[in-house]
Structure formats: structure tokens, C-alpha cells
Amino acid sequence: MATTKWAVDPTHSEIGFKVKHMMFTNVSGKFQQFEAAIETEGDNFENAKISFSGAIDSVTTGNADRDTHLLSPDFFDAAQYPTITFTGDTFKKISEGDYELTGTLGLHGAEKPVTLAVEFGGLAKDPWGNTKAGFTITGKINRKDWGLNWNAALETGGVLVSEEVRLNIELQFVKQ
């Protein structure tokens, strides 16, 4: 069977994350510049080869001061580590429409394995005849596993920024 290549449609995709702030509210952010690709056997995504890279300096949370802090050595250290990467190792079907994606997340000079839940939205043709595939990817990582250790203690106990980062990713791919 022929290999099929899929390219991300960035105008219909979002790489998002949420982190608890002061232990009781979530702050959301996203990467605005990224690339992703998938290689499959035909239109079957099981065992697909998946790759992703994003520009750290494209992170936005809707607050310029917070974004500047995130890019500093306290967090992402964008000057030294300008890219976040992911390479998928396995993409296996769990049940109809549900998959498990395991791969390596490269961030802040470290590479660590992660497992993410994937909901396959299906295939469809857009009005221009392009075949599209949609995916919702979720998971949790501990930012300290990648050396993102900065924090501040709160007077009431607890810390300013949670160690747990929730990933909320919506990806639409175009068959090449």
C-alpha cells in the first residue's frame, strides 16, 4: 500500500495548554507558529508516523508581561531552546475513534516520553475537494520533567504555578 502524506492546516488547528494559577484558576496559552505532518498507509492512521515542531517564541497567553516571563530563563528560555518538538512512536487504536499516541516530547533541552489520548474526528472532503482529517489530542505532563522549575510560594500555602500542564490540541490535516 502506498504511503500517504498529511500536512497540518494551521488555520484550523490549535496547540493549546492550561496551567493552574494560584491553585484555583486555569491560565490558557497556545503556540501560534507550528508545523506537523503525518505519514500513513493509505487512509489508516494506525501506526502512523507523526512529527511536530513549534516555535517557543510564538507562545501567547493573552498577557504580554506573562508571555515575556514564559520566554525568559525562568520558564522556556526561548533564546537557548527555541523549539518544542514531538515525534510519535506509536499510534494505536483503543476503540472506534479513540487512539493512544506515544512519543517523545522535546522541550527545554530535554526529551521525555509522553502518552496522549487522541480522538479521531474522521475524514471529510472540504468544498474545494481536499481530504481532511481531524484530531483532538489531550494529555497531562509535569513541566518539572523538562526542567521548567520556576515557582513562588503562596502565603496561604501551595504554589503560584501548578507543575501539571494540561494539553489541549486540535489538529486538522490535509491529504497531500
TrEMBL record:
InterPro entries found in the cross-reference section:
Lipid/polyisoprenoid-bd_YceI, TTHA0802/YceI-like_sf
Outline the extent of the Lipid/polyisoprenoid-binding YceI-like domain: 5-174
- Organism domain of life: Bacteria
Q: What is this protein called?
A: Lipid/polyisoprenoid-binding YceI-like domain-containing protein
Q: What is the lineage of its organism?
A: Bacteria, Pseudomonadati, Bacteroidota, Flavobacteriia, Flavobacteriales
